[in-house]
Amino acid sequence: MHAIVIGGGMVGAACADALALNGVRVTVLEPGPVGGGATAAGMGHLVVMDDSPAQLALTSRSLELWEALARDLPAQADYHACGTLWVASDAEELEAVEPKRQAYLAAGRGALLLNAAELAHAEPNLRPGLAGALRVPGDSVVYAPVVAQFLLERAGATVRRGAVTELIEGGVRLASGESLHADLVVVANGIGAAGLLPGLPLRQRKGHLLITERGALKVNHQLVELGYLKSAHGGDEDSVAFNVQPRPTGQLLIGSSRQFERPDREIDWPLLRRMLRRAAEFLPALAQTSALRVWTGQRCATPDHLPLIGPHPDLDGVFLATGHEGLGITTALGTAEVLAAQLFGGFSELLAHDFTPARFGRMLEAVHA
Annotated Gene Ontology MF terms (predicted)? Predict the structure, then answer.
């Protein structure tokens, strides 16, 4: 069997690897450098999230797969099991975190409550007066473009530089006009999937990131505010949240922001200043730290914040692996496991959840029933 994978980012590379492990010959089509799109524009965090049971299952299983893969990764991947601290600003937030802790424990992930003193000891540079935190020790960070390249090489995939402009029967057409044919096409090019398949329920979401110079203040964990969901996921308005990550280079990676329907790559300076002010509210010394680089990236979001994994409802031989929003690095390996199980009949506990594109049709049928 021959498969074409559209997209050489982290998700496409993971899918290519899974296909190759099942004996498939894989050609990957990528218009730019491997991992040069959303993969390079993200924070590279590997985090368990619990917005829904399906998201919890996908992220927790993916973390298991990352832990197994980490042993084989090259040093340049910068895999670092730093853990995450979900920081509580006040007693109300800390008290409300218990269901999150229980959900993590039920999924087999570690989760420990820290009081104010324990948090201050774990992260001395956080401002005084915080109530505590939920520590998730199994979370990690990674430099994903290196991992994408590693997986493509392991898969023995043929990587071709080229932009796909159209899906045709049994293959794709490139911007050069050339047509390529295969038994299977996997669309894994993030928001680019919306251009190839306009009927998909996908939205573009822009985010800003900043990395500091080396020698910034020391942070031991990835730090995220517990108000992250209401700050950054609460609606369609522009939003920011505190999210800081230590890098092995001694730098800090600072996020996060959300803007929907902003397809440009320009820096929104007022929003960036707002994002940095939010970060400095938690880490005051950041105000004296110099930035090295600022950039933006485009994520690909779905209405229920879960990826589309599985066969296209109307196109034979076309499978989707897109719509991961800000969790594409975390869930790439779980996505590939689901795809392989769908194609080859293997077992995955993730098949208990519906990640297929057809779920949106079923939702509409339920509404109109």
Answer: oxidoreductase activity
